[in-house]
Write a structure and sequence with these properties.
Elements (H helix, E strand, L loop, with lengths): L2 H4 L49 H14 L2 E8 L2 E8 L2 E7 L5 E7 L2 E6 L1 H6 L10 E3 L4 H7 L5 H4 L9 E2 L3 E3 L2 E10 L2 E8 L6 E5 L8 E5 L24
Antiparallel strand pairs: 1-2, 1-12, 2-3, 3-4, 4-5, 5-6, 7-9, 8-9, 9-10, 10-11, 11-12
Length: about 240
């Protein structure tokens, strides 16, 4: 793993926050009181996968492959200059990027097409070259669309990172209610900690930058869940060719 690749997620120049498309399931059937209620069973806890027995670099590589093989996941980042929440796959991305005082935007990527909708604050930052609160459409050949799409790190699925840098394994700890093996990467006197699930599939669960606060924290969840809406926004408008974020 070269340093840039290892840190590409927390060091991304842009940050996506997922457009959370929620669907509420409703059951309007009346309860049948003539029969005893069914007992709900609790799913058994995932079994230990033994990943903590591997060398640190192998743990990192295994976690990156596991995330790629999941096909999709939710990625959230919290950094000083941006808060993100993405749903990603190799071909799709949905999100809303919150760049705080600079404004925010929604993004939908489907194949080679990128759709984005900036708020009024970001439109002003872009010198009003794009309309506020309206969907615009383009490809990554356009500089603005390329900049916005760069928040969606889809290479995590097509080219998962591998370690070529010494890493250090630590004792198992909790990460969001899951047992995780910390694998530390030291760079420039600071540390990034990659937390890999010690139970079930050895997914990368989080990146902890508490010793490197400028980098931001990242969490991963919803492995294998749908990553994008079935169709992109229907109302769109090409941005100017010279737009830049």
């Amino acid at each position: 793993m070269n340093t840039a690749a290892a840190r590409r997620l927390p060091l991304a120049a842009l940050a996506c926050t997922a457009v959370v498309l929620t669907m509420t399931a409703c059951n309007n059937d009346s309860a049948d009181t003539s029969k005893p209620a069914k007992q709900t069973s609790t799913a058994p806890a995932a079994k230990a996968n033994g990943v903590e027995k591997l060398p640190a670099a192998e743990i990192y590589n295994k976690a990156m492959r596991a995330n790629a093989e999941a096909g999709s996941f939710r990625e959230r980042m919290d950094r000083a200059d941006a808060v993100t929440d993405l749903r990603l796959s190799a071909t799709e991305c949905t999100g809303t990027v919150d760049k705080k005082e600079l404004g925010s935007f929604d993004i939908v990527i489907k194949g080679s097409d990128t759709f984005a909708k900036v708020d009024q604050t970001l439109a002003k930052e872009l010198d009003n070259k794009v309309p506020a609160t309206k969907w615009i459409h383009g490809t990554r050949d356009n500089s603005l669309m390329k900049a916005l799409a760069s928040y969606c790190h889809q290479e995590q699925f097509t080219d998962p990172d591998t370690s070529s840098t010494p890493m250090t394994k630590k004792a198992i700890r909790d990460s969001g209610g899951h047992r995780a093996v910390p694998v530390e990467l030291a760079s420039g006197g600071r540390t990034l900690t990659y937390l890999v699930s010690a139970d079930g599939t050895s997914n990368l669960l989080a990146v902890d930058s508490s010793d490197n606060t400028a980098e931001g924290d990242i969490t991963y969840s919803d492995f294998g869940s749908p990553s994008a809406p079935r169709s992109p926004p229907t109302s769109s408008k090409p941005p100017p060719a010279d737009g830049a974020a």
